[in-house]
Design brief:
The structure holds 2 protein chains of 2 kinds. By secondary structure, chain A is mainly β. Chain A has no helices and 12 strands. In chain A, strands 2, 5, 6, 10, 11 and 12 form a 6-stranded mixed beta sheet that branches. In chain A, strands 3-9-8-7 form a 4-stranded antiparallel beta sheet, with no helix packed on it. Chain A has a two-stranded antiparallel sheet with strand order 1-4. In chain A, a hairpin with a 2-residue loop joins strand 7 (60-61) and strand 8. Chain A starts with a strand and ends with a strand. Chain B is mainly beta. Helices cover 0% and strands 56% of the residues of chain B. Chain B is built from no helices and 11 strands. Chain B has strands at residues 4-7, 10-13, 19-25, 31-38, 42-51, 54-57, 65-70, 73-78, 87-94, 104-105, 109-113. In chain B, the strands form 2 sheets. In chain B, strands 2, 4, 5, 6, 9, 10 and 11 form a 7-stranded mixed beta sheet that branches. Chain B has a 4-stranded antiparallel beta sheet with strand order 1-3-8-7, with no helix packed on it. In chain B, strand 7 and strand 8 (73-78) form a beta hairpin. Chain B starts with a strand and ends with a strand. At the A-B interface, strand 6 and strand 11 of A face strand 4, strand 5 and strand 9 of B.
Chain lengths: 117, 114
């Protein structure tokens, strides 16, 4: 079974600064997807960014980027120029690409990020 | 209008009662999922369905059942609710192999069992 670990239960960052959220995962698969989801106080789950394991290039979406280290099974999220609206729970998630259990999401326990004015 | 809707948004019920949570989607996706979120535990998969005739158990299916009434509708039932089923429940959809893999979540249903 796949496991996803987020070692930082809570973090804080000053507005306009940069913060990095950590995520490690355990799998024997070679093909998979990784995601970061954001859950603001409204509780809606919002996709922030995704990474295909076969792509070496790190994904980027505006102020959000990842550092994907496949050999180390690490998938960290960097938020640049933090904004108050970034305050939320952030979940790292793994999706198996093929075989039994494919296309199911396995989530980490989340990191609560607070952006301080 | 929201693509994935859940009803009710909030529900308080008593131990032993039967309750149904409903999910509807207008995205035309084949795949639908039910997750449960508990504080400090992230989201865990309860059941999933890849089409109307396909139902599969997830990580924590005990005490739950589902019904896929149509491509657009996927309901979660608690036959006899118990307090440790108090949680936030999410429905999600995805397009499937031919279209992609991203899951789209509904707004969630907060269920309290007293």
């Amino acid at each position: 079974a796949q496991t996803v670990t987020q070692s930082q239960p809570e973090m804080s960052v000053q507005e306009a600064e940069t913060v990095t959220l950590s995520c490690t995962y355990d799998t024997s698969e070679n093909n998979y997807y990784l995601f970061w989801y954001k859950q603001p106080p409204s509780r809606q789950m919002i996709l922030v960014i995704r990474q295909e394991a076969y792509k070496q290039q790190n994904a980027t979406e505006n102020r959000f980027s990842v550092n994907f280290q496949k050999a180390a099974k690490s998938f960290s999220l960097k938020i640049s120029d933090s904004q108050l609206g970034d305050t939320a729970m952030y979940f790292c998630a793994f999706m198996r690409y093929s075989g039994a259990g494919s296309y199911q999401l396995t989530f980490g326990k989340g990191t609560k990020l607070s952006v301080i004015p | 209008d929201a693509d994935v809707t859940q009803t009710p948004r909030n529900r308080i019920t008593k131990t032993g009662k039967r309750i149904m949570l409903e999910c509807s989607q207008t995205k035309g996706h084949d795949r639908m999922y039910w997750y449960r979120q508990d504080p400090g535990l992230g989201l865990r998969l309860i059941y999933y369905s890849f089409d109307v005739k396909d139902i599969n158990k997830g990580e924590i299916s005990d005490g739950y059942s589902v019904s896929r009434q149509a491509q657009a509708k996927f309901s979660l039932s608690l036959e006899s609710a118990i307090p440790n089923q108090t949680a936030l429940y999410f429905c999600a959809t995805s397009e499937g192999v031919r279209g992609g893999y991203e899951q789209y979540f509904g707004p969630g249903t907060r269920l309290t069992v007293t």
